[in-house]
Write a structure and sequence with these properties.
The chain is mostly helical. It is built from five helices and no strands.
Length: 68
């Protein structure tokens, strides 16, 4: 998700501040490069409590393009 968020245009990110673009990209950096900084409880908490809401918002953005 972090890599994909990094490919979203700046215009799209500004147009959709309801999606935490910076935080999504930040998690990817930590998971990929800062192994010693990983706190599994924090990752689990985000996956369980925050990820479903973020995914629902992203799905709303991509829905109009699914049949193209």
């Amino acid at each position: 998700m972090g890599s994909a968020a990094g490919r979203v245009s700046a215009e799209m990110q500004v147009a959709h501040p309801e999606i935490p673009w910076k935080e999504i990209k930040g998690v990817r950096v930590i998971l990929a490069h800062k192994y010693s900084d990983i706190e599994l409880s924090v990752i689990w908490e985000a996956a369980v409590n925050e990820l479903p809401d973020v995914l629902a918002k992203v799905e709303l953005l991509i829905a109009p393009f699914e049949n193209e």
